[in-house]
Amino acid sequence: MVSPAQAHAMRVAAMLVASENNPAPANASEYELMLLKLAQDRARLKQIESQRGKIEVKRKLLPEYVPWIEGALKGNGAQDTVLMTIMVWRIDTGDWRGALDIAAYALRHNLVLTDQFERNLPCLIAEEIAEQAKAGEPVPLAILLEADALLNSYDMPDQVRAKLAKAIGMAQLKEAGEGLAGMALVRKQQALVSLKRALGLHDACGVKKDIERLERELKNAAKPEESSSGTG
C-alpha cells in the first residue's frame, strides 16, 4: 500500500521525468525505482499461465502506479516506459477511461511503445480495444467511438481499423436491442454504416451476414411508413 507521502513523491518524480525541459532530472533514480518495480511485477506475471489470473494480478497492482501516472500526465511528454505499460494493463483490465487518458497524452506527445509490444501505438490501442469487445467484454459504445475519433488521423493496417469499426457496429446493434423505433432505429441505422465501413476496409472481417440481416430489418421497418404515406 502506497502512503500519501510516497504517492506525493511519486507524482512529483513522474512530472519531472515527463518534462521535456528536464529530461534527466536530479532525482531520475525515482524513475529507475519505478522501472525496477515494473520489472518485478512483470516477472511475477510471467509466472502465471492463466490469462484470467494475469488480469486479476494486474488489477491488484494498478492502484500502486496511480500516483506515478497522475504525475506523468501533468508533464510535457518525455518517453516513459512505465506510463506506456500501464496504459496496456488498463486496457487488459477493462479500465477503458484510464487507458484512453494515457493514450491521448501519448499520441499528443508522440510517445512510443517498447519493443515488447511489437506494434505502433495507434494500432495497439485500436486492436486491443476491438479484441476485448469481440471477446465479450462490456466495452461501452462511448469508449469505442472515442477511441475511433482519437485514432482517426493515424496510420494503421486496414484490417485493424476494420476490427474497430466492426466493434462499434456490434455495440450499436446491442444498444439498439430489438426495437425499431426512436433511438433504437437510429442506432441500427448507425450500426449499418459502421458495419459497411468495416466491410469496405476488410472484405473478410465477418460482417456480411450482419449487414444483410440489418438491411432486411430496416427495409421491412420502412414499409408501413411508405404504405401510410401513400394513402390519402
Folded structure, characterized:
With 232 residues, the protein is an all-alpha fold. It folds into 2 domains: 1-23 and 55-118, no CATH class; 144-232, no CATH class. It contains 11 helices and no strands. It has helices at residues 4-17, 29-46, 51-61, 66-72, 81-92, 96-108, 121-134, 141-151, 158-176, 182-201, 208-230. Mean pLDDT is 86; it is low at 20-27. It comes from Chitinimonas prasina. This is Terminase.
Quickly list its features.
11 helices; mainly alpha; 0% strand; 232 residues; 2 domains; single chain; elongated
Topology readout:
Elements (H helix, E strand, L loop, with lengths): L3 H14 L11 H18 L4 H11 L4 H7 L8 H12 L3 H13 L12 H14 L6 H11 L6 H19 L5 H20 L6 H23 L2
Helix pairs in contact: 1-4, 5-6, 6-7, 6-8, 7-8, 7-9, 8-9, 9-10, 10-11
What's the short version?
InterPro entries: Phage_P2_GpM. The protein has 232 residues and is mainly alpha-helical. It has helices at 4-17, 29-46, 51-61, 66-72, 81-92, 96-108, 121-134, 141-151, 158-176, 182-201, 208-230.
